[in-house]
Amino acid sequence: MTAYTPRQWRRYTLRTILYVALIVMTLIFLLPIYLVVITSVKNPADIKLATAWLPPTQIYWESFQEVLVVFGPRLRNSVALVIGATAISSILGSINGYVLSKWRIPGEKILFPLMLFGMFIPYQAILIPLFDFMRSIGLYGGIPGLILIHVVYGLPITTLIFRNFYVDIPDEMLEAAAIDGADFFSIYTNVVFPLSIPGFVVVIIWQFTQIWNEFLFGVTMTANDSQPITVGLAQLAGGEAVKWNLPMAGAIVAALPPLLIYIILGRYFIRGLLAGSVKG
Amino acid sequence: MRSQRDRTIAFLMLLPSLALLGLFVYGFIMQAIGTSMSDWGTNPAQPPLAINVVKSFVGFENYHNIMTDLLEFSFRNSLINTFFFTVFFVAGCLGVGLFLALLLDQNVMGEGLFRTIFLFPMALSFVVTGTIWRWMLQPGGGINTLPTAIGLPPITFGWINSREVAFGFEWADVPRILTVVGVAILSILALRFALSGRRRALMVVGGIAALLIVLFVAGFWNLIWLPLDTPEAEASIAPKGFNLALIGVIIAAVWQMSGYTMAMFIAGIRGVSEELREASRVDGCNELQMYRYIILPQLTPIFLSAMIILGHISLKIFDLVFAMAGPDNAQTVVPGLLVYTEGFRENSFAKASAIAVIMLFGVAIIIVPYLWSQFREASRADR
Amino acid sequence: MKSRLLLVVLVIALLSVFGVVSAQDEAPSGELEIFSWWAGDEGPALEALIAVYAAQYPDVEVINATVTGGSGVNARAVLKTRMLGGTPPASFQVHAGQELTGTWVIADRMEPLTDLFVAQGWNEAFPAQLIEQISYEGDVYSVPVNIHRSNVMWSNPAKLEEWGIAAPATWDEFLVACPTLQAAGVTPLVVGEAWTVNHLWESVALGVLGADGWAGIWSGETAADGPEMLAVWDKFSEILACSNVGVDSAGLSWQQAIDKVIAGEAAFNIMGDWAAGYMVTTLELEPGVGFGFNASPDTAGTFMWLSDSFGLPVGSPNPVATVAWLELLGSVEGQNAFNPLKGSIPARIDAVSAEPDLYNTYLQAAAADWASNDLAGSLAHGVAANERFMGDFNQVIEIYLASGSSAAASAAFKAVCATSGACG
Questions:
Q1: CA of A126: which chain C residue's CA is closest?
Q2: ipTM confidence score
C-alpha cells in the first residue's frame, strides 16, 4: 500500500477542515430555522422559554391550517403585487440602464446620481405626502396603487443593476447594428435584450424579495381586501397574547415563494452577478 | 449611428422614470423639509390632526430642539447607534460573505446546496428575522442556554437588554474626533499620492484636509453640532458609545444579508479567469498568495457595490429593530424607528420630518462623494 | 281612461319611491367598516359582536378592518394617514379618555354623542365617574364597550403558601417580604419590557397619591415636581430594587412575566387583567386556584381603568349604520356578547348581573369592584394623558432608570407636562 506523502496529508487535512467549517456555518445559519420549524408545530401552551429548543412531543398541524385561513386572500394579493411590480420595474430598469449606459443624455452625470439617491430615503418620512397623492389620483387602497409605489421606489436599484450590467456590452456590437440600420428600439430588442437575461435574474430575485417582504406600504396604502401577505403575518403576531406557533408557521409559509425563486434561479443568480451587475 | 432622432427618443424613454422619481422622491422630500420647518404636532396649542391644521413656520427650531434638548436624547443616541450598527453590519456582512465565498470556491461537493442555505435568510422579511432572533436572544433561554447542552455554564450576556456601553465618548467631542480621523485618513492618502507622484490628487487631498482643520478651529461645526442643554445630565442618563444591546441586532442583520454578499463575492471570484489563476501558479504563487494578490484586488468593485447596498439598508433600518427590540428600547433606537413613533404615535409630524431630513443629509454626505468619484472616473475613461 | 290609469300608476310609483326613501332613512344599509387592532385571541370577541349586529341589520355589510401589530401602533399609523387624507372609517377602536380626546376630539374630528347617551339611558347604566372622566367640555364622544383593570397584582397561591407569604396589601408589606423572597432565590416582583414598567409605575403612583392625588396630576393640582411626586419616585425606586428590572426584563413579554409567576420563579406581577384572560384561556388555570389576584398594594378600593371604545368620526361614510353599531355596543346584549370572549368586563354596571354565568370568577369580582370602587384613569393605556405625553413619558422612565434620581425624573416629568399640555 502506498504511503501518503506529506503533501497529500496536507491536502486531506485542509479538505477536512474546509468541510467542517462549511458544516459549522451551515449549522449556525440553520439554527434559527430549526427554532422556527419546531415552534410552528408546537401546541401553544407548550411554547415556553425553558423548552424552546426541545422538539415538540406531538406535531400540531393546526397552526398551518389557521395560517392558511388568514393568508388565503392575502397570498393572492401578494402574488399579483409582486408579479406586476417586478415585471414593470425590471423592464423600466432595463430600458433606463440601456439609455444611461449607451446613449449620451444631456446631464446624465447628474441625473443618474439623483436617481440613485432615491434609494436612501426613509419611507416613513414621505408616507403622508405619498398618501395624499395616491388619494388624489384615485389609486389609494388597491393593488394597482401599491404596484405603482413599488415600481417607482424600485427604479433606482433596478436602473443601477442594469446600467452596470450594460456597461460591459461592447459598444462595437451596437455600432454594428446601427450600421445595419437599426434604431433605438431595434438595437434594444435585437442586441441588448437577448444579452440581458442574467441581469433580469438578479433584478427579479432582488425585487421579488424586497416587494414580497415589504410591510410599511403594504399596511398603510391598502384597504382591507387588498392587503399583502406581510400584513397577514402581522395579524398572526398581533393581539395581547401571541400564540407563537402561528407567527412561526406564518413565517414559513410566507418565506416559501422567495425560497423557491432562490432554488430555481439560484444558479443564474450567480451568473447574473458574475456578468457585471456587481460593478461598483 | 446615434442620430439626433434616436437620442431624443432615448431621452424621452428615460423621462417617465425621471418624472416619477422627481415627484415621489424629490417632491415629497421638499414637502418633508417644509413640514420639518413648521410646528405641526409640536405646538401643544394646535391639535395636529384637526381638519384644518394651523401650522406656523418655525425655521430651524425643530432641528435645534432635537440636537440640544435633554428629552430628545433618543434622537442623538439613534444617530450614534446607526453609526456603529452600519460599521459592524457592513463589516460583518463583507467578512462573513467573503469567508463563505472563499470556502465555496474550493470545488466542494454540494456547493449549490450550501449556497442556497446561506442565501435563504434573505428570503425572510426583516420582521420575521427580528421576531426569531428576539426569541433566540432572550436572557433566560435561546442562545444563552445552548452551552448547557454540552455541560458549560450558560451565557449571561443580556443581549437586547444590555445597558453596557463600549468605546464611550462625549457628544460634544464628536466634531473633534471626526476631524482627527478625517485628517488622518487624508494624510495617509496624501502620502500614497505623493509616493506615486500624483501631484494633482495630492493637492486635492491636502486641500480638503486643510479645510477640515480650518472649519474645526473656526468653530464652524458648532453651528451644526449644537452644544447640549445639559451635558452632564445627558452623559449620566444616555452615555454615548457603542451600545452592546446592538450586538443582537447586528447578528440578526448579518445573518440575513451575508448570503447576498457571499453571492456577489462568488461571482467576482469566478470572474477571475482560470488562465490568470494558472499563470499565477506557474509563476510560483501558492494558493494563499494567489488569493491575496490576484483575486482580492479584483474584488474591489464588489466591495464598493456591496457597501452601497448594505449601507442603504442599514441607514433606513426599521422593521428589524422594531420586531427585535420594540419601539421603546432606548439602547437600540435608530432614526427610522423614531420617524415612525414620533410621527404616528406622538403626532409630532414636524419633528419626525426633521429627523428624516437629517437622515437624508447623513446619507448625502456619504453618497455624494462616492458618486462624484465614480463619475470622475467614468469621465476620465471616456476621454 | 288611459290617462287615469297612468295617473294611478304614477301615484303608486311616487308613493313607493317615498316609501323606499323613508325606509332607507330608518334602516341601516350599505357598508360599515369597523377599524380596530384586535386580532389573535381578541378576534373572536369582535366577530361575535359583528355577528349580533349582522343579525339585527342584515342589509349592512360589515367590514372587519383589523390592523394588528405593535399593540396598535400600526393601526394608529394607518388610521391617522386615512383621517388626514379625509377617508375615515365608519368607526374605529380607540382607548376612551385622552387618547381619543387629546388626539381627535380637540381636532374637531368626532361627533358628540351626548344625545345618544341620553336617549339610550347610558348616563345611568355607566358609572358616573366614568362618564365624567371621558367627557370633554360637557360632551361625550365615544361608547365604552369594555373595561380592563390596570391595578391588579397576580400571584400563585400554592407558591405563596409554600414561601409562607401573603399577598401584600401595602407596598410596605411587600418591601418587608422582599428580602425573604430574595433569599429563597425568587424574584419578588417580575417586570417585563419597557411599557410594563410604565404600567407598574402607575399602580405605584396611584398607591402613593390616592385616587384624588392621581387625578390631581392631570388637573394640575398635584405639582409634577412637588413633594408628593418625589415620594412616588422614591417609592418606585425601593420597589424596583426588589424586581428584575434591568436584569432580564427588557426581553420579557408580559406573558413571559406571568409565566414566571406561575412557574414559581417570581412571586408577584402587576399587570392589567388581560393577564387573567391569558391564564384562563391559554394556560387553562382557574381563577383563585391556579392563580391569585388582588388589587395592587395600597390601591384597594380604587379601580384603575382603561376602556376600548368606538365613536362617530366627522365625515363617517355611513352615519346611520354607525349609530346603530354604537347603540349595540352600549347595550346589555352587545356588551355581554363581546366581553366574555374578550376577557374583560362590560362598562355597564347592569350587564354582568343580567347574565352572570357568562363571566368567570375573576371577572365577576372585577365587575363588583367596578360598580363600587372609585375610578382612576390609566396613564399607560390612554385615559389620563394624550399621546404626546405618553410617548415622552417613556423618556422620563428611561431617564429615571438610567440615573436613579427622583429629582431628575420629576424635572423631566414636569418638562413633558409642559410640551404636551397634558397636566392641566
A1: C81
A2: 0.83
